Amino acid sequence: MDQFLAFTVVGLSTAAIYAVIGSGLVLTHTTAGVFNFAHGAAGMLAAFAYWQLAVGWAWPVPLALAAVLLVLAPAFGLLVERVLMRPVQALGEAERLVMTVALLTGCIALARWVWDPDTPRPLTPFFADRPALRLGAAAVTWHQAVTMAVALAVAAGLWFLLHRTRAGTEMRACVDDPVLAGLTGADPLRAGRLAWVLGVQLAAVGGILIAPTVALDAQQLSLLIVSAYTAAVFGRLRSLPLTFLGAVVVGLLEAYLAGYLPRNDYLPGLRLAAPALLLLLALLAFPHRRLRGRDRRLVPVPLPGRRGTLLLAAAVLTLALVLVTVLSEDALVPYGAVFALGVIALSYVPLAGFAGQVSLCQLSIAGIGAVVWGHLGAHGELWALPVAVLVTAAVGALVAIPALRLSGIYLALGTAAFAVVLDRWIFTLPAFHVLGVRIALFDQGSVNVTGPDLLGLRLTSPAQLLLLAAVCLALASLGVAALRRGRFGRRLIALRDSEAAYATLGGRLLGAKVAVFALSAGIAGLGGALYGMQLQTVTAEQFNLVAGLPLFLIAVIAGLGSVGAGLFTGVAFVVPTQLLGELGTWAQDLSALLIALAGMGLAHSPSGVIAQLRDEWAPLARDRLLLGALGAVLAGCWLLAALDAVNGWLLPALALAAAVALRIRAAARRGTPADLPPEWWGVRRPWRPEDGEVLGRATAAG
């Protein structure tokens, strides 16, 4: 009984922290209409800032707390609301989701960049020098008592704010109908600012309270938000009392699992994954219209032409040949992942781009493909590669079944929880047997991965594996483009536009979702196997949730509806990382920070960068003379590099400068006739924002 009371006290103390963080999450969603994936990262930055002030610079604890909670946290909340979230309010739920994912990635990268992750930073609990309080046979530390008191104060304060003050009423009214609220004298901008300030302050309070009990690690503290997500979903993202109840359930569950879970090799990860499992169950068990609702502005999905798709495949193969002939064997190793990661990123296109199903577990599924190939293809057996694709496709189909009930941010939450379950539990399991079949994943360590045996030729060198990955990316890109042009692709677009209309017209939602999830997971599994061949040795950490977020962001930046997103993502992920890595170890996390900043610029290009590049470079692609000149310049640069006549980045810089100059010249040669008839606007010249107004006025005048 004494042990049970001790675990109960620990669980209630942890639950109090989850309640504080979860209430901030509910407050932001209820009043500002935004589900903040970066909520835990805000608390993580607050914990690091508190450590820097109180320990690093030896400030008095009250002064450090005041600086973080009353100055830094409100300033961060105002910055997020004004610079990041306000520009995407008009774009819809999906874009706001991407923005908060970018913010999460950026906060983790910033913390790792500023504070060396290899340096321990212990924090002393509050009032650690005082004797513990006695509650019967259980001891309650002063830090635990303060934590529970703060949670009760937060609950009372939020209830009073939302239900007994004009500011709280204004905040709730603005999220329901900002236009109507504005007519009554409310200020939606002021309500949004207040919601973000309070939400970040609550995240900061939770981060500071939990930091003394866990390692001060950027990734670990940011992912503690999964437990707060579970508490918030218990409250259906709108009820603070139910959120606190959910926090108690999660906190006690973690404490009791830590105390009573049997000790063996298979269950330790279950305790770590329990909040994510509970989150999945909560998403599926609580019926509510918000779990299936959508609020977003649909971005048109381009229809890839056959000529453009063939040019894309040719560009993939040409780039691979250039890298193989220009780079040395050692230099090929870091750049070999371009095409393998491109295949993984391409899996987002049919799933999120065509069908509108947001998934954050694609890299984790790719990890399954890597280990399946590593074990079954240990001696290069080529048949193991399609088996890896089929196994991951089956996993994707399994994920699709609960996805039928979820959409939007809730589907993203569910797939993120699935990735966390894989990271913390499934990938940590030792080998086990099912019906006499031995199943091994990472087997609590690493897995050696080798190249395949292709028609008697064993592919082992970096150049051979790079060419194999490039061929797979080219073929996969052709296949995804053909899918978009086919009947199933049109069905996926209809599914994305309106699930209700799709079902009303006779479409089978379950069949379509299972098919697209399985297809996307199969592509990711192929990419994971190719990525493992490049790395030669894979570990579970290389396929966790946080590692997959930059890939997702770059694919979004490229444009999820564009088939070229795979190649763009592979190049944008690998090349800047390698270039910045040459500057020193201090720049290792700078590339992730730059990716996050680029993702935060989504409001300026919701349809993706590829669409813009296609419009800008279209004049050069249509000018055969200048296009031939560009080909001659690139061939000359390639020849000079292959002969080692010129080394370094001079040739790429010259090639880029020549391409830009020729593009400008092509645009000037093409020109735009001043008297171009309106029916040719958007065909012989790009469509301009003012064209709609001009045509509208002309129609009204007629």
What is the secondary structure topology, with strand pairs?
Blueprint: H1 2-32, H2 39-56, H3 61-88, H4 93-114, E1 133-135, E2 138-140, H5 142-164, H6 166-176, H7 178-183, H8 188-210, H9 218-223, H10 225-234, H11 240-260, H12 268-285, H13 306-326, H14 329-335, H15 337-346, H16 348-354, H17 362-376, H18 384-403, H19 408-424, E3 432-434, E4 437-439, E5 446-448, E6 453-454, E7 457-458, H20 462-485, H21 487-497, H22 499-504, H23 509-535, E8 537-539, H24 545-558, H25 565-581, H26 590-600, H27 609-622, H28 624-642, H29 650-670, H30 689-701
Antiparallel strand pairs: 1-2, 3-4, 5-8, 6-7
Give the biggest beta sheet. 2 strands, antiparallel
Question: What is the rounded distance between the termini?
Answer: 86 Å
Compute the average pLDDT: 82
Strand order of the largest sheet: 1-2
Strand tally, please?
Answer: 8
Shape: globular
Query: What is the structural class?
Result: mainly alpha
Could you estimate the helical fraction of the residues in percent?
55-70%
Cα Rg: 27 Å
Strand content: under 5%
As an assembly, this protein is single chain
Question: Could you give a quick summary of the protein structure above?
Answer:
The protein has 30 helices and eight strands. The protein has about 700 residues and is mostly helical.
